[in-house]
Each structure stands twice: as structure tokens, then as C-alpha cells.
Amino acid sequence: MKIKDLEFTQFISKSSIQRKVRLLADQLNLDYQDKTPVFLPILNGSFMFASDLLKEIKIPCRVSFVKLSSYVGTASSGQIKSLIGLEESLFNQHIVIVEDIIDTGLTLTRLVEGLKNLGAKSVEVVALLRKQPAREKEVSARYIGFEIENEFVLGYGLDYDGLGRNLKDIYQAKS
Ligand code: IMP
Fold first, then answer.
1. 44 upstream amide cis, omega within 30 of 0
2. How much distance in Å is there from the Cα of 158 to the middle of ligand 1?
3. What's the average model confidence in pLDDT over 85-98?
4. DSSP 3-state assignment of 15?
5. Where would you tag: which of 21, 57, 58, 94 has the fewest CB atoms within 10 A of its CB?
């Protein structure tokens, strides 16, 4: 499949994503059963993951959103833009950030800092994918779906210049 100048091949199928999402939700249902957490998906990339994950959450919870962006094309720009910011209502709450993919970890590090400053009771991260650079820097995320190499991926919410977010499966760019 070609998108703009890049050729993509299928990497993780819809059914293995769904299996993994259920496993992550099972663990969260256990760990947060008495905590009424606030799930905080980071837009845009995590909209599909968050939607599937939250359908499997059986405990009382709230959902709020933040919108951040650090990517231009296929690389992190190193600067985070906050497009929808954090709300006061996150004060004194158990927060679970819902992230599509952790690459350099810059996005998460900034967000976790912001949440702690707001007075969150606890902050953990559930991420569908984690890339090699985040492992090297030991960016902490308690719940991880798939560990992948340093490759550019697309689909299931993840985009290439705005394209491909709607795809059900995850694809990988051919090098
Ligand atoms: P970080 O701040 O470098 O960890 O980048 C995290 C954000 O960059 C993610 O939430 C994604 O939106 C985006 N991103 C990172 N890697 C990829 C990729 O391979 N494909 C599409 N988007 C990506």
C-alpha cells in the first residue's frame, strides 16, 4: 500500500490488536477497581485505541482528553504543541494516560510533569506500542501492548502527514 512517497506493509492485524487491547483492559480493571480513574487519551493518535480499550473497561471511570502534537511527517519535531490543555478537574484524581505509541517519550514526559503540577493523585500510562528509543531512555509506562523496533508505523489512529488514521490494522513503512 502506498501513501504519499512511502510504501507500507501489514504489520499487526486487527485481531491481534483486539486481543492485546482486552489483555490491557483486564489488567486495568483489576488494578483500578476501587479507584474510579480518569482515562486521558492523547489526541489525535490514540482515538481508536482509546475507544476500543474503554469499551472493555468495566469499572467506574471518567474520560477526558488532551491534544498534543510533536510530530511533523515521520519524525518528532522535538517541540510539543498543546492544542487542548489540561483541566482543573484532574486535581486529586488517579490518571491513566492513553497513548498510541511512545517514541522519544518527550510527549509523555511533558504531560506527566503537567499532571503532577496540577495535583494528580497518581499518573500511569497505557500505550499500545513502544519503540526502541523509549526503551533506551527508560521512559516509564506501566502498561504496554507491543514493543517494536525503531520503525515508522501507520493505521489504527496513527498517521503519516494526516493520512492513514482510519485503517483497522497497523502497517509498517518499508525501508
Ligand atoms: P514522542 O513524543 O517522540 O514519544 O512521540 C509520540 C507521538 O508521536 C505519538 O503519540 C504519535 O502521535 C507520534 N508518533 C511516534 N511514532 C510514530 C509512528 O511511527 N507513526 C505515527 N506517529 C508516530
1. yes
2. 8
3. 84
4. helix
5. 58
Q: How many CA atoms, within 13 angstroms, populate the side-chain half-sphere of residue 69?
A: 14
Per-residue confidence (pLDDT) for residue 173, from 0 to 100:
96
φ, ψ (nearest 5 deg) of residue 119: 90, 35
**For ligand 1, atom 8: residue with the closest CA:** 71
- The three cell numbers locating residue 116: 503532577
Instruction: Determine contact, residues 71/79, Cβ cutoff 8 Å.
Output: no
Cα–chain-centroid distance for residue 136?
Answer: 18
**Over the chain, what is the mean pLDDT?**
89
Q: Which residues contact 58 (CB under 8 A, 6 or more apart)?
A: 29
Q: What angle do CA 61, 67, 71 make, to 5 degrees?
A: 130
Q: Which residues are catalytically annotated?
A: 103
Strand, coil or helix: what is 63? strand
CA-CA distance, 113 to 37, in Å (whole number)? Answer: 18
With beta carbons less than 8 A apart as the criterion, state whether 37 and 93 touch: yes
